[in-house]
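User: Hi! I have a protein structure encoded as tokens and I'd like to know what sequence might fold into it. I'm fairly new to this, so please keep things simple.
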């Protein structure tokens, strides 16, 4: 049976990984500077991660949410401790799209309204409401387009004010650092004004932290670079270091009721073991501090390369913008220099999303290869 052909594939077949490297079926070593869309947060096959999952699957891999699962509470407590989000409750699911779908559903439940405000070049997932709030007509089917969504430019505070004052908006959803869109950011003043407008107009402020969260931005969550209090925070990607897990942090002003949300696989024993291993490793290895140190070093080196027109992003969620499209450069880096990087909706942007335990030697290796490739 053929696979449904929706992915343009590079001719590389990874079969193993260790730390910041992956190895293909021919034994070639690749420097992984993309982490599978920022999923690999603590490195491939980290011993803490391998041990936690191995021990858990040997004990109990799965049971449904109809029973007690103390691992969920352990994960919630550890997340509260490291993120310093003290006034939230956790709902666990399987992916970023599912996290945003549940976030939008909660906002609609809470407010009794259905329209959503999102922003240009935003990406929130591929499920029904999440994809409708995504600024990409190519992935929105007619069944998704029936959702009530208004897309505004980033930093258009007057536009946000106008839409919210119409009284039918349940949620404003935003990436504080855009991922697929190309590392664009709204200003802190803009986000803080949006937060105030939401609270004045019975509208839920949703922070989509699926890619920019989990220490990647230099703070645990990217919204923490601003003075805002989101009503709902969605998370996934780096949360499980490759194991499918997502979550929604929900302000206690949103009352829970039996049956309002649900999931078969979300918050299962294996997922929680993976999630706890990631949080414990971030803490034990001071990966938030490493993220900031390596980011500072990356910016300093990048500024010495004249072909780079702009360095975008924060922490280890980075983009290098050129005055040409980078598709061929990415291929050159993969096939000739054995390095994984990412693209974006901005075709002139090279995305860099490495594991949070990257070291200076890896950054040096990348920039030496980049300088050769640019010649």
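Assistant: Happy to help. Inverse folding works backwards from shape to sequence: for each of the 375 positions I chose a residue that suits the local structure. Here it is:
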């Amino acid at each position: 049976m053929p696979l449904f052909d929706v992915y343009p594939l590079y001719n590389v077949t990874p079969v193993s990984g260790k730390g910041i490297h992956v190895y293909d079926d021919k034994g070639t070593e690749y420097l992984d500077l993309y982490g599978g869309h920022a999923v690999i947060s603590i490195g491939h096959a980290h011993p803490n991660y391998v041990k936690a999952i191995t021990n858990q699957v040997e004990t109990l891999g799965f049971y449904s949410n109809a029973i007690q699962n103390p691992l969920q509470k352990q994960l919630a407590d550890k997340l509260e401790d490291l993120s310093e989000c003290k006034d939230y409750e956790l709902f666990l699911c399987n992916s970023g799209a599912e996290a945003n779908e549940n976030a939008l559903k909660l906002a609609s439940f809470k407010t009794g309204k259905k329209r959503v405000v999102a922003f240009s070049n935003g990406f929130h997932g591929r499920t029904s409401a999440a994809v409708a709030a995504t600024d990409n007509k190519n992935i929105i089917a007619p069944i998704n387009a029936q959702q009530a969504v208004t897309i505004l430019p980033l930093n258009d505070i007057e536009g946000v004010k106008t839409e919210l004052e119409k009284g039918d908006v349940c949620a404003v959803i935003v990436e504080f650092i855009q991922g697929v869109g190309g590392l664009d950011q709204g200003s802190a003043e803009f986000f803080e004004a949006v937060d105030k407008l939401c609270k004045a107009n019975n509208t839920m402020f949703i922070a989509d932290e699926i890619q920019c969260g989990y220490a990647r931005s230099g703070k645990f969550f990217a919204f923490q670079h601003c003075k805002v209090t989101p009503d709902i925070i969605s998370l996934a990607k780096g949360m499980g270091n490759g194991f499918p897990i997502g979550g929604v942090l929900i302000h206690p002003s949103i009352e829970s009721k039996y049956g309002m949300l649900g999931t078969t696989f979300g918050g299962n024993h294996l997922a929680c073991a993976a999630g706890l291993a990631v949080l414990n490793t971030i803490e034990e290895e001071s990966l938030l501090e490493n993220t900031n140190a390596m980011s500072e070093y990356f910016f300093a080196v990048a500024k010495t390369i004249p072909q780079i027109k702009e360095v975008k992003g924060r922490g280890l969620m980075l983009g290098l913008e050129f005055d040409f499209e980078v598709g061929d450069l990415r291929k050159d880096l993969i096939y000739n220099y054995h390095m994984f990087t990412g693209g974006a909706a901005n075709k002139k942007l090279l995305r860099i999303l490495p594991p949070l335990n990257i070291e200076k030697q890896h950054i040096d290796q990348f920039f030496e290869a980049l300088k050769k490739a640019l010649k």
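A useful reference point when you look it over: Residues 62 and 269 are 5 Å apart (CA to CA). Feel free to ask if any position seems puzzling.
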